[in-house]
Write a structure and sequence with these properties.
Length: 281
């Protein structure tokens, strides 16, 4: 599903970058070195890191990723574009994880601002940013974590998102908080032929689903249901963190081509009873 991005570096840019990586005695490159190369060549940080990885020079920010992902996997992550719908308990955790892991472009969608009820679980919220836009705060945080990541925030509803966003996406994350919007997103992903990673939590319980286009998995899962249990059971921080981490892991596997199964699956977990169950739909 991930687009081949062999043209991410133009021949002219390659000529400019090549001298920086010729006959080097070290195989790692620091953030400051990347920034200097970017400033001297006028080539963005994402492209400099992409070229470094292509040459098997390890940007030190990703050094602890490579044993898990390999150079090839890290390269695919940096090439990838994801759409993240919702920047709450799940989305805030995910945007941080995806930024740290090195997903090259993140497009986030959320019409809301932070309020005090978000403070118990939403990583991007704090007492000082109550009333501020979630997309703005996500951009500010990512710029402090990884300047190579290209972030675009849309403060709008899902149905207001421009069509070109779906055309760019390799993968979509469902971090929404109601069934109607989740089903609308699943239908949009199916129509756009984009895989979807779904997440939802309530109390001690959570679910993460891999939804392949055309499977109708969420329609089957939510058949006859109007509301989830989160309003009744609450949304504690650790449940959100577990679900978001599982979403991030599954999403990165898909982006790197390491997720072999094309069967749509929901992973259910119960943190109270330490119970895990996988169901294919």
């Amino acid at each position: 599903m991930v687009k081949s991005n062999a043209s991410m570096i133009s021949p002219e840019e390659e000529k400019l970058l090549e001298p920086y990586f010729t006959e080097c005695e070290v195989s790692e490159i620091t953030i400051r070195q990347v920034e200097r190369i970017s400033a001297e060549t006028g080539i963005c940080i994402r492209k400099v890191e992409w070229f470094a990885i292509k040459k098997e020079f390890a940007p030190r920010r990703y050094l602890r990723n490579l044993g898990t992902f390999s150079y090839a996997g890290q390269l695919k992550l940096l090439e990838s574009t994801v759409v993240l719908v919702g920047l709450g308990g799940l989305g805030g955790q995910l945007v941080e994880q995806l930024g740290r892991v090195g997903v090259g472009e993140i497009i986030a969608v959320d019409p809301d601002v932070f309020d005090e009820t978000n403070l118990n679980r939403q990583l991007l919220s704090n007492e000082a940013n109550i009333g501020k836009e979630k997309t703005y705060e996500a951009k500010e945080r990512l710029e402090k974590i990884n300047k190579a990541v290209e972030f675009t925030g849309f403060r709008c509803r899902l149905d207001e998102l421009p069509d070109e966003v779906w055309e760019k996406a390799d993968l979509v994350f469902d971090c929404l908080d109601n069934i109607d919007d989740r089903l609308a997103l699943a239908q949009k992903c199916s129509a756009s032929n984009r895989p979807l990673v779904h997440g939802a939590i309530a109390g001690w319980y959570g679910e993460v689903g891999i939804v392949w286009p055309g499977s109708g998995m969420l329609e089957k899962h939510y058949q006859g249901r109007q509301e989830g249990l989160e309003k009744e059971l609450g949304t504690p921080p650790f449940t959100a963190a577990v679900a978001a981490s599982l979403m991030g892991a599954k999403g990165c596997q898909i982006l790197m081509g390491q997720h072999q199964s094309k069967q749509s699956t929901i992973h259910f977990f119960d943190l109270l009873e330490d119970d895990w169950e996988n169901i294919q739909l």
